[in-house]
Every structure is written in C-alpha cells, then in structure tokens.
C-alpha cells in the first residue's frame, strides 16, 4: 500500500519589504497552514516570560516600557547598528522561538497530519535555520524596489532604508539557498500565478517518498 502523505514544512524567507507576508497569505488561501516567526518572537518576550527577563538582564531596564512590556523601538535602536549586540539578542531568544515553533507544528499536525506548513522566517538564512525545513522558498525583490517600498511605507529616508537592508544578507546571496524563488517585483497577478505554480509543486512533493530533511547547507555568516 502506498504511504499516506505526511506533513511538509516549508521555510519562506526574503528581504525587508519584499512581500513575504503577501506570498504567505496567498499560500494560506490555497490551503497552507501558516506560522509567522515574527509573531512567535513577540510571544516569547511577553511580560513574565524568561525571554524578556534575559533581555532585561543583558540590556537593562531601559528596554522596558512603563507597563513592564518590551520597548521594541528602544531595543531596536540599541542593536540596529551593532552586529555583536544583534547576535547577543538572537542567542537570548532564538531557543525560545524554536521551542514555540516546534509546539505550533505539533498542534497543527495533531489536527491535520498531512498539512503543508509554511513558516515565514525573515532571517532564516542569516541565523542558519535552513535545517529546520524540507523546502526553502525565497521571495525575491530587487534592492532598489525594497528601498522604494521602505521609503513609501515607513516614511524613511533613502539612506536609512539602505542602512536597514545592510542588517540582512543581500537578497542575491540568499538565492543560492532557495529551492524555489517567487519574483515579487512585478504585478500582484504575476506573483499570484507563481504562487499557484509553487503550491502545485509543494503538493506534488508531498506525494513523493521522503526519508530525510534538508541538511544544513552552510552558515551564511
């Protein structure tokens, strides 16, 4: 008897203002179960969590708002231009994010064992999470378009937008880690057609015999 399809875990990544959430939403409409690492990252530093306590211990109470919650803007200002501090922050909270991810996958597969799970992970390559996923999808947007979108959406200068992009691995470098690329420089209709084709490939992949996950393909740092 042929094996029943098992769940598939897809890592979806890209650059700032590249359209990751748009592609994720489209996949959700087609039937994917969605996980957002940004949402998980917020949950693990809620008031009373060990994650928030570790951040305060390292960076001080200056990163707290009057109500005791994390002042994300202040923390962002501290780590934005300091790679060492960004790495420290990652080391403080990423184990908790990983555990939250495992828990959410377990909840999804308990209800839907054959789920296609799409996890939106902005820094998937930068923090070397490739090994968690069977398939890596890159939402590709050119640097120029990223800068223009940041300037339009967040009312920032070109220089600030460019500096923000410098905190991530260049989008061209991320291409070599991707199994599939969705180009999001064009129209919404063009993106939707690509997502539809991607979904069909994911469904076909799910039906194939599989006995191993992706192995880590190297640390980009």
Secondary structure tally, helices: 9
Work out the strand percent: 5-15%
How helix-rich are the residues, as a percent range?
40-55%
* Radius of gyration based on Cα positions: 18 Å
Report low-confidence residues grouped into runs of 5 or more. 212-221
- SSE sequence, one letter per element: EHEHHHHEEHHHEH
Query: What is the mean predicted local confidence, pLDDT?
Result: 88
Supply the helix-strand structural class.
alpha/beta
Measure the end-to-end span: 45 Å
Shape: globular
Record the strand order, biggest sheet.
2-3-1-4-5
Tell me about the largest β-sheet. 5 strands, parallel
Find the count of extended strands (DSSP E, 2+ residues). Answer: 5
Task: Describe the structure using short key phrases.
about 220 residues; disordered C terminus; alpha/beta; 5-stranded parallel sheet
In short:
With 221 residues, this protein is an alpha/beta fold. 49% of the residues lie in helices and 12% in strands.
How would you characterize the overall build of this protein?
It is globular, with a radius of gyration of 18 Å. It has helices at residues 20-30, 37-43, 50-59, 72-79, 83-111, 143-154, 158-165, 171-174, 188-206, and strands spanning 8-14, 33-36, 116-120, 135-140, 180-183. 49% of the residues lie in helices and 12% in strands. The chain has a five-stranded parallel sheet, with helices on both faces. α6 (143-154) crosses α7.
